[in-house]
Design brief:
Order of helices and strands: HHHHHHHHHHHHHHH
Shape: globular
Helix content: 55-70%
Largest sheet: none
Number of helices: 15
Oligomer: single chain
Strand content: under 5%
Number of strands: 0
Structural class: mainly alpha
Amino acid sequence: MFFADFDLPSTPVSTGIAWPDVALSFFAIVLEGAPFLLLGAIISGLVDVFLPANTIRNWLPKSKTQGIFAAMGAGLIFPLCECGAMPIVQRLIRKGVTPAVATTYMLAAPAFNPLAMFSTYLAFRNQDPWLMIALRFGFSFLVLLFLGFWLVRLRPDEMLRAETITGSPRPAQEMSPNPGLVLAPRAGLSLGGLQQFTGAVIRDFTGVLLFLVIGAAAAALFSTGFNRNLLTPIGHDLFWGPLAGILLAQLLCLCSTTDAFIIAAFVPFSVPAKIAFLVAGPLIDLKLYWLYRSAFKPKFVHGLWIRALAATFLLTLLYSLHP
């Protein structure tokens, strides 16, 4: 991936914002996220057009709690990058999957991505790689478990924007992001089915791409205008180290399959700080904040952000305090 070889500039705060660096960082984030976003749109189109809703509902457990564990398992078996998972979640919800279960899968797919674990091994191959993999996977599992049990307590109307369930609020069916999503019969493997599939992919990709661009712009502005050298003195601190790792993950907005290569280069950072970075980043960052707002209500996104980061911080803090 592009970001694996891209070194973000460490522009001092006093020199102001270097706009060429902002532009470079912006295009790096967009070019890294867009292919996964397109992959997610393609998979979501396949789910929408060719996978019957009853098949999904019959496969999932009836219990919401059991559904949470099933969603976490699906994140391991059917992994995706965080950008690619977003369109699929909206399709699953409109197919009748419980929002809590679909959202858990959205969070678990990048967190449990085997490619992310393999890249972690490669990035830390000289820094106890198996410990880093175990901590990344274990802490991600605990945070997702905490978030999953929070999600099952929420009503769909507390989580979702109205158009996430019904499609576009515009009355004309042909203007909907997915016309006839729930009621229209599917044409199967025919010309009509392929046309529906192509239209669904285009609508999903272009509809969410705007939020990726907004998030990338915010991340580029913050990451290039912030002096990374300020984080170095606190990287080994028991309390501030994990906070620094979380803050860095929010600003850099890296893909979960490449983030390990970046944080491994931060030698002054402690293991808890690096794990906080690797756990928090795939769950939510500045880029994902805007992507999530394409489907979820702002209040829910804020609650998810606070809980995900707080749980990550507490786990890594406890680990840093252990003898």
